[in-house]
Write a structure and sequence with these properties.
Keywords: Signal. The chain has one domain. The chain contains 5 helices and 9 strands. A hairpin with a 4-residue loop joins strand 6 and strand 7.
Length: 219
């Protein structure tokens, strides 16, 4: 009961925080289908290293489109940067195509079976991200990407016992209220699921994003 009350308060707080209509967005054509959602951001400043994640979220069915930027300079600069594959980078000792100062990841996930029982994910593979405009509290850009398509399925035991069902409902509720970036730390984090052998390719074209967090940074 106490947990449900805390969750309700969190939803009410998030809803009031995002009550005003936001102009932040992320859009793209995903395998030929137009897609658009309000964009969220997570920026973590660490000495000598920066991480900026941008993402759009939808619920029922759940969909997430992420652009993650890693850079080893104090400021993000306009320019066109290659999209990396984490698998390929791992084999090369995490040496990005850009020479080590910047790399970008683009990822996608779509719920294919209700209540998190199946997902079709696109893992970052290749393409480009172009930063067209950037300030200390905003960023705009475009992207084109080819993703490695993979599939996840809820484990049989988890399906039979209903494991994670409540957590899934809570995640959907908070994501729908505007807290997608808070409750979804990684686009491929599917609890109690296994990756299947089936693979394909997901093509993302005409990707655009605009995120301004000036109001959030005001004291």
């Amino acid at each position: 009961m106490k947990k449900a009350y805390i969750l309700l308060l969190a939803v009410l707080w998030v809803s009031s925080t995002y009550a005003q209509k936001s102009e932040n967005f992320m859009s793209a054509s995903i395998d030929g289908t137009e897609w658009k959602a309000e964009a969220k951001r997570l920026k973590i400043p660490i000495k000598g290293f920066r991480y900026l994640a941008l993402a759009g979220f939808k619920v029922n069915p759940d969909e997430q489109l992420w652009v993650r930027l890693y850079y080893f300079e104090d400021e993000l600069k306009p320019g066109t940067y290659p999209i990396e594959s984490l698998e390929a980078m791992n084999k090369k000792g995490f040496q990005p195509k850009s020479g080590g100062k910047f790399w970008a990841l683009v990822d996608y996930t779509e719920e294919t079976k209700k209540m998190g029982h199946g997902f079709h994910d696109g893992e970052s593979m290749e393409g480009t991200v172009t930063i067209t405009s950037v300030t200390p509290t905003s960023v705009e850009g475009t992207f084109e990407a080819t993703l490695q398509g993979v599939y996840y399925q809820k484990r049989a035991l988890a399906t039979a016992t209903g494991t994670g069902l409540r957590a899934n409902l809570e995640r959907k509720l908070l994501t729908g209220a505007g807290a997608g970036m808070v409750v979804n730390g990684d686009p491929h984090d599917h609890d109690n699921s296994k990756k299947l052998k089936e693979t394909d390719t997901i093509k993302i074209t005409d990707g655009k994003f605009k995120v301004d967090w000036t109001k959030e940074d005001k004291p």
